[in-house]
Amino acid sequence: MFLSYWWWHYTLALFDLVRNYFNFVGWLKNFFSLGLLVRTIFAPWRRMGEKYGSIFDAEQFFGALIVNTLMRLVGSVIKSAIIVFGLLVIFLSVFIFLATLILWLAAPIIIIFLFIFGIGLIIS
Fold this sequence. Notes:
Blueprint: H1 2-10, H2 12-31, H3 34-39, H4 58-123
Helix pairs in contact: 1-2, 2-4
């Protein structure tokens, strides 16, 4: 039983840990809609904008042009901030995964050490 646990811990479970991490990164990518935000970075924010109307009415045309340009700028700033935050979260998840991986690899040794340490405390 002891050897089958070690085999499971360092093969199947380790593979599942890595697979779950990549699934989690995919979920984060979808949660922050990184692909969609990159494709639509210069689209107006929340589709807000004005209709241009007649080209012969300069006031209406340039008013709509200014509003639409501002909405595209607002959209690109907000989308850029969300993209940067999403990438930071994914970058942070790499470090958390590495710490989890190291802890997973060391867990059986830590458990054996703590068991021996606990026996030593009981005896003394």
